[in-house]
Each structure stands twice: as structure tokens, then as C-alpha cells.
Design goal:
The structure holds 2 protein chains of 2 kinds. Chain A is mostly helical. Helices cover 74% and strands 0% of the residues of chain A. In chain B, α1 packs across α13 and α8 packs across α10. The chains are: A mainly alpha, B mainly alpha.
């Protein structure tokens, strides 16, 4: 088996990856942390004095921070709710005997491969535009007043767009998990007289629970960082109505050039993501043992 | 199957699930249709769009002339293929070593690598932006190749690791018994068996890099802008633009949509880090 020589070779083969990832993690992280304690704005020249927790204080007490936090939670929660429920439904439906299952599956999965800027702009203009969008035209055809999606319900609109993008991911994973369901168990339950709802609650759902957890954790990591969809549709507005934490940090760092403030926000975002990451890592770690 | 399913049930299922699937797919189909209409016809009521006149290829040419699709397309190709290629160069040996010469710490190392992926990009936006500015690599393709390579490196390593793990170790021992050197072992025994795993890793990572829309939007302006940025330029349009936006969108997503359909299975594996198989 592994000799001393092959161990040395292995270490040599791993080291570039380790060094790069270590640098990629530590250097920017240390800088973010360092900047977050400085008064540092790219527009005002001169020294960058150390100001302690000042940036954190101003970032957190700014009214837009609270709004952004609530929006972030609503965005993540809303998308999770839609995609997990929708994903379970689609996974069950795709599992039924039917013709052309491959083609239908491809149609459901397609949105995942659409880049965020495209899906956001297409939904904003072709579907949600109150004058020319399809939703508006359908509403008019039935005699209703079209909704101004981006003006009246900006956050909900973004939730819908992002859900459309992530529904395929949830569906694909839950559908994959469905494949390993023990069909005989289901049939036995059916023969014993268990109706569909109880078969679903007591057999299917417990079987899917692990996959659902994985979907929730992975999506949360990505959903905390939703950015492009907001940038090209509402720019975080009207006002701050659709600003999430990621977008707020972008505004203070790259639009207001406030390095210190943006960094303080960045540290907060990192802490938030890490809370979720810990749970995800535990689950994956367990799987690695098995 | 223990039970025969009647054709009637199958037809009903197909109709219901097919309709729902079609609704999910509809926005993509719709832009494909609009992209072949004139601007005046693209904003008509849906049924008029479908059955009315005004079919043309014009928008595709306009988009190319107005915002140089091919420049952005080649940027996207270079960035996604480049970041995947360099990622592989670093990841293949690492995943290899961890799969075939596992040490006590291999598992911790893997978990740590994965944890770097959990770092939200916005948390390091400021330092990366400033470092790029000071090095003069803002808005360059090489800068983006590097960032996206680092972003996806943990996924590449993980995917390769899970694939390599499935190659039985006995084959390696047999090769060694027959007197193969380490180099021969890697080149003639392992590589052919690893090709499918590497191929699906490549596919998934090209897709991820192609659609990446945080760093590509924040670190590029004009010269190195890939298709994500190219489409974002249509967010503040002048005049009628539905047909043009549709044509631009179709051109931006078509290449990756096709690649994506081939890699459905790998997608699950790659994106869940092996937690769901």
C-alpha cells in the first residue's frame, strides 16, 4: 500500500491546491477584517485612521440595514418555500408513469442553465412589464388592472424570478432521491389499505427528508448572495424595498466607495453565511463517513 | 414494475405533468419566439405574436452590430474554459492524491476546502476589488479566470475526489505487481478510468463559470466583459427592445443550455458535494 515515497508525492500533489485556497481565504478575509476597522473612503484622500467599531456601529444602525436584513430573510425564506414545495411536487409528478418523461424533465430543468442576468431581464420585461408583459396582457384580457410588479411588489417579484431559477435544482435533487425509494414498501402499505396522503407522509416524506435538508442548506448559501437579479431589475428599489444584504454591501463599497463600511458589512455577511455553513458541513461530513 | 399501468393513466399523467413542465419552460420558449419577430410585432398580444406576421432574423444582426456579441461570447468562452482548465491542473493531482493515498487528515482537509466555498463573495468584494485595481487587472480576462478558478476549485476537487474514489484500488495494485512505475500507473491505468469523471467535472464547471454573475459584473466593465455583463447592458434600454433583448438572451444561454442538458446527472452530484447521489 502507501509507501513513504508515495506519501511524499501525495503531499506534493496536494500542496498547490492547499496553498492557493489558503491564500484565497486568508488574504481577502484578513483585509476585509482590517478595513472594517478603518475610516477609509476611496473619494477622500489621506490617511485611513483606525476607528474601532465605528463602521459596524454605523452600518448596523443605518435604517437600510434593518430593511436589508428583513428583505434577505424574506428572499431566502420565500424562495426556499416555493422551490422546496414545488420541487417535491415535481419530483413526485415526474416519478409517475408517463410518455416522454425525458423531454418533460429537460423542460423543467432548463431554467437552471439560464444566466441570472438573462432570467431577471426576461421576467422583468417580457412577463412582468405592466404594459407589454404577458402577465399584464392576460390581466387586461380578463378585465383586471395589470400589476406593476417592479414598482408595487419588487421583493416578491424578485422572489418569483429567483424561485424560477432554483426550482430545477430542488426538483433534480429530490427526483434523484426519489429513485432510491423502496417501491415494495409503498406497495405493501397500499395493500394494507394506507391511502395516498398517509403513504406520502409516512413513507415518501421521511425518505426525502435528507435530500430536502441538503436542498435547503445549499440553496440558502447561494440565496444569501443573490445579486445580479436585483442589480438588473430594481437596483434595490424603489428606495430600499428590494435591497438585500449583499446588495447593500455592494452599494456602500462600490457605489459610495466606502471601503470601511462595505468591509464591516462584509464581515457581517460572512458570519451569517457561516451559521448556515456549519450545519451543511456537518451533514456532508457525516455522509463522508458512510 | 409489479403492476401494469393502463395507457389511459399514462396519457392523463403525461398531459398534467407535460403542461406544468411546459409552463416552467415557457419563458425560454417565449424569448426564442420573440427573437424572430420585428420590434413592432414583439410587443403585441401573445396570440398576435404567435400567429401574426413580422418574422425576421434581423434582431440577431442588430444585436451583433450594436453590442458586439462575438466579443462577449469569446470572453465568456475564455473565462469559463480557462478557469476550468487551470482549476483542473491544480485539482486533478490533489484529488488524486487524496483518493489513492489517503492520510489521517484527508477528510479534514476536504472539509476545509469545501468550507472556503461557503465564504459569501460579497464578504471579500472590497479587498479583491482593491487588489485587482492595484495590480491593474480590473476588467481583464486573466483576472476573472483566476477568480472563477478559485471560486470553483473546491467543487472541482470534491467532484474529482468522489469519482476517483470509485476506481477500485486493486487494479492499481495489479498494475504495480506487473512492474508499472508510478508514471505508467497514472498514465495508462488510472487516466483512462478517470476520463468520464473528469469530463463531467469539466462540463459542470464550465456551466457554473459561464453563468457566474457576481464577480463578472463587479470586476469587468468593457474589455473583458462576458455575456452576463453583455445582457446586463440591456437593463436600461432605449426605445423598443424586446426582440433585441430576446435575441441577445437566446445567444447568451443557448450554448450552455445544450451543455447543461448533457450534464443533468453530474449536476446533482457536483452541487451537493456527493451528499445526494
Amino acid at each position: 500500500m502507501a509507501t513513504k515515497a508515495s506519501r511524499a508525492a501525495a503531499r506534493l500533489m496536494i500542496s498547490p491546491a492547499v496553498l492557493l485556497l489558503l491564500g484565497w481565504m486568508i488574504v481577502p478575509l484578513a483585509l476585509t477584517l482590517y478595513f472594517s476597522f478603518l475610516r477609509y473612503n476611496l473619494i477622500t484622500p489621506g490617511a485611513h485612521p483606525f476607528v474601532g467599531w465605528e463602521n459596524y456601529y454605523w452600518f448596523v444602525t443605518d435604517p437600510s440595514f434593518k430593511v436589508a436584513m428583513v428583505n434577505t430573510l424574506q428572499l431566502v425564506g420565500g424562495v426556499l418555500l416555493i422551490t422546496v414545495v414545488g420541487g417535491v411536487i415535481f419530483a413526485l409528478l415526474l416519478d409517475l408513469p408517463m410518455f416522454g418523461q425525458g423531454i418533460i424533465r429537460i423542460m423543467v430543468i432548463a431554467p437552471f442553465f439560464v444566466m441570472p442576468t438573462v432570467s431577471a431581464l426576461v421576467w422583468k420585461n417580457m412577463l412582468m412589464n405592466p404594459v407589454n408583459g404577458i402577465f399584464g396582457q392576460i390581466a387586461k384580457a380578463f378585465g383586471f388592472q395589470p400589476i406593476d410588479f417592479m414598482g408595487q411588489i419588487p421583493l416578491l417579484s424578485i422572489i418569483l424570478i429567483v424561485s424560477w431559477q432554483w426550482l430545477p435544482f430542488a426538483t433534480l435533487i429530490l427526483f434523484t432521491a426519489m429513485q432510491s425509494l423502496d417501491r415494495e414498501q409503498l406497495e405493501a402499505a397500499e395493500m394494507d389499505g394506507a391511502r395516498w396522503p398517509s403513504r406520502f407522509i409516512y413513507i415518501v416524506l421521511p425518505h426525502l427528508s435528507r435530500a430536502i435538508t441538503v436542498v435547503i442548506l445549499i440553496q440558502t448559501i447561494f440565496l444569501l448572495s443573490v445579486f445580479a437579479e436585483i442589480l438588473v431589475t430594481t437596483n434595490g428599489g424603489p428606495g430600499t424595498a428590494s435591497t438585500n444584504l449583499t446588495y447593500l454591501i455592494y452599494v456602500s463599497s462600490l457605489l459610495q466607495f466606502d471601503v470601511g463600511m462595505g468591509s464591516a458589512g462584509g464581515v457581517i455577511a460572512i458570519i451569517l453565511a457561516n451559521i448556515v455553513a456549519i450545519f451543511l458541513m456537518r451533514m456532508i461530513g457525516k455522509n463522508l463517513d458512510a | 414494475m409489479a403492476r401494469a399501468v393502463s395507457t389511459k393513466t399514462k396519457v392523463i399523467n403525461t398531459a398534467i405533468v407535460g403542461t406544468l413542465g411546459f409552463l416552467v419552460f415557457f419563458p425560454i420558449l417565449w424569448i426564442a419566439i420573440l427573437s424572430f419577430k420585428t420590434e413592432e410585432n414583439a410587443i403585441r398580444a401573445p396570440l398576435e405574436v404567435l400567429f401574426g406576421s413580422g418574422w425576421t432574423f434581423e434582431s440577431y444582426f442588430t444585436v451583433q452590430a450594436r453590442s458586439d456579441y462575438f466579443k462577449h461570447f469569446s470572453n465568456s468562452v475564455i473565462i469559463s474554459v480557462g478557469s476550468t482548465f487551470f482549476g483542473l491542473l491544480i485539482a486533478v493531482p490533489a484529488a488524486w492524491a487524496m483518493a489513492f493515498v489517503p492520510a489521517k487528515r484527508t477528510k479534514d482537509l476536504l472539509m476545509w476546502m469545501l468550507s472556503t466555498k461557503m465564504l459569501p463573495p460579497v464578504g471579500v468584494l472590497v479587498p479583491i476589488y482593491l487588489i485587482f485595481r492595484d495590480l491593474g487587472i480590473l476588467d481583464t480576462r486573466s483576472g476573472l479566470v483566476f477568480v472563477l478558478m478559485m471560486m470553483n476549485l473546491p467543487i472541482i476537487i470534491w467532484m474529482l475526489y468522489t469519482y476517483f474514489k470509485e476506481i477500485p484500488g486493486e487494479i492499481l495494485e495489479a498494475a504495480r505487481m506487473d512492474g508499472a512505475t508510478l508514471r505508467e500507473e497514472i498514465l495508462y491505468v488510472l487516466t483512462p478510468m478517470a476520463v468520464p469523471g473528469i469530463a463531467s467535472t469539466v462540463l459542470l464547471n464550465i456551466i457554473l463559470a459561464w453563468n457566474e454573475a457576481f464577480w463578472t459584473l463587479n470586476l469587468t466593465a468593457a474589455r473583458a466583459a462576458p455575456l452576463t455583463q453583455f445582457i446586463a447592458s440591456y437593463s436600461s434600454p432605449e426605445g423598443l427592445f424586446y426582440a433585441k433583448l430576446s435575441a441577445a438572451s437566446v445567444m447568451a444561454i443557448a450554448p450552455i443550455l445544450i451543455l447543461g442538458w448533457f450534464s443533468q446527472k453530474q449536476l446533482v452530484r457536483g452541487l451537493t458535494f456527493g451528499a445526494v447521489k
